[in-house]
Amino acid sequence: MAETVTTMKDIRLKLAKEELVTSGEGVEVEREDTPSTFILMGLEVEESQRHLAIDVKAIATPTSLQEVEFLKRRTAISKRIRAFRRLQRTYMLNVRKYLTPSQQALWDTDDDRDAEAVRLFLPSDIADKAKRVKACAEGLPEVKSSLREGEAHDALETLRQGLRVRTMTNRFWLRNSTGQRALTRGQGVLRQNNVRIHKAKLRYRYAQNALSLGARYRLRGPQIIRKL
């Protein structure tokens, strides 16, 4: 039997249809804030954090312009985190009291950390099942698990594309390139693609780890989502 692969786009569409509400006139309308928009915001913030952390680590001595760019990105992420926290008060009310002491310490020091190091504390970050159920709005962990599954599939496809590009680029330069200038240009292309591969790998691992935790607590998480 052929393996069914559900992408993030498919899952987002399915959840959006499920979250439609019916108005008094019998017309289906889309709510502005839903469990899926909350979780999606968290996943997007986490991805922005990972990308920034990778870029900061890659540049040991940034120029003034690069430092300004990092500051702009941190500011943008901080704004998104504040928006996420506002929604978190709706879908994960009083989440702090359900965190472990070490997690609470991280929660309390958000303002002392760079934006890329701030922990969001999504449902799978609460290890104790009973506490997780109390901390989350009904059905929220299942929504997150569905979106993590889509995230894992999308990241894996990006990773596969990156590996194919790397293989084809290596073959092309070995066959067609001569001279130091061409070699330098080829190395630049490969370097950019390797960064893309690394980011996709991290994204997949984050999603896979969250799905593994979910499976442990009888949430969704198919066997096809394996460790890299």
Give the helices and strands, then pairings.
Layout: H1 8-18, E1 21-22, E2 28-29, H2 35-58, H3 64-91, H4 101-108, H5 129-135, H6 140-176, H7 180-216
Antiparallel strand pairs: 1-2
Helix pairs in contact: 1-6, 2-3, 2-6, 2-7, 6-7
Structure in words:
This protein has 228 residues and is an all-alpha fold. It has two domains: 20-138, no CATH class; 140-228. Helix content is 67%, strand content 2%. It is built from seven helices and two strands, in the order H-E-E-H-H-H-H-H-H. It has helices at residues 8-18, 35-58, 64-91, 101-108, 129-135, 140-176, 180-216, and strands spanning 21-22, 28-29. Strands 1-2 form a two-stranded antiparallel ribbon. Strand 1 (21-22) and strand 2 (28-29) form a beta hairpin. The two termini are 24 Å apart.
Summary tags:
single chain; 228 residues; mainly alpha; 2 domains; globular
* pLDDT averaged residue by residue: 83
Q: Overall 3D geometry?
A: globular
How many strands, what sense, and barrel or not for the largest sheet?
A: 2 strands, antiparallel
Strand order of the largest sheet: 1-2
Beta-strand segment tally: 2
Terminal Cα span: 24 Å
Strand fraction: under 5%
Percent helix, as a range, is: 55-70%
H/E topology pattern: HEEHHHHHH
